[in-house]
């Protein structure tokens, strides 16, 4: 199952958060001037686009969308303009569903978890519209000029984004794998035209790593049996796009960190993640991932300190934009559990479950885990309350079977 997860992890191209600019939030930094670059779409260097990405990487998705929509109005025939808005829309919705916490993919058998994802219909419609517009406009330009590298890149970029969306929102793993392969093909075509078009290295790197991680039978199942892959080549391509890419440098680093973490190369992943957190100290997810990686590397007390610092920073007015605190509380509780601090783990799982914006899926996971900790504290009455919540009818049912069993038989494992 671990190797199978990599195919889906490959679709999680970007790990930034969303949100509206919180009242009283600190002003975001002015984006640094971009050096002219002939190996990228000129629109990627537009000041409004760069400003939009500054908001995007500080989790202000509404602020990013406002700017990307202005770019769309000014450039309605540019396919990449629709891709900017597509990215912001997709990851705002994924964030609101607690789907950008990497612990979900690093440790859970989420391929078989039928969790409910309630994305508003209006958001779904706009995501599909933006995706279709990128494809339509790119195809029109490629009919006129098959060597249009910017149209090819925009189409491949949008395909990768849409693959991430249908994977996480709809569990459409096979369709996503095929879209990921199409994104790779577009990117390879870009590099044949312009070998210095570094943004295109990202999709190829993701596919190289993912395909190399899959057994032959899984490749057959998803229809990519003849596609080659090489993990180290994939990581090296991600490093190139991380260093030289214009709109994929941050995304490439987040993906690089994710893949290194998945292969238990925690020190390397942490080095990448420290750089992201230092560059974007107000990005809640980048800070949270530092704690996650520190925990996975086996440094529980240090990870606990980082989780607590993230939570302390979240209490500062305007420090983070729309922090989903349930993720930090759950990560803290998981780490305390690993350190045999059962009492604090129980308390902090309950903190995660009590957060007003917690998804039903994560809330029930937290309730189940809190019940297990209460059982270890010999409070089966209190544990049963949590199991009943986790197994309640309606909403997410991924924890229901386990919860019902634990109501009858107290939890005794660690």
Description:
The chain has 20 helices and no strands. The protein is an all-alpha fold and 414 residues long. The chain has a domain at 2-278. It is elongated, with a radius of gyration of 21 Å.
The biggest beta sheet reads: none
Give the averaged pLDDT, no decimals.
87
Per DSSP, what share of the residues sits in E-state strands of 2 or more residues? Answer: under 5%
- Given as residue ranges, the uncertain stretches (5+ residues, pLDDT < 50) are 1-27
In one word, what is the shape? elongated
Instruction: State the secondary-structure class.
Output: mainly alpha
**Spatial extent as radius of gyration:** 21 Å
Q: What is the N-to-C succession of helices and strands?
A: HHHHHHHHHHHHHHHHHHHH
The helix count comes to: 20
End-to-end separation: 23 Å
Counting DSSP E segments of at least 2 residues, the number of strands comes to 0
Features:
disordered N terminus, 414 residues, elongated, 20 helices, mainly alpha
Question: What is the gist of this entry?
Answer:
The chain is mainly α. It has helices at residues 2-9, 47-56, 61-74, 79-96, 103-107, 121-144, 149-170, 173-193, 201-212, 216-221, 231-244, 249-262, 266-279, 284-296, 300-314, 325-338, 342-354, 360-376, 380-390, 400-408. The longest helix is centred in the first third of the chain and has 24 residues, at 121-144.
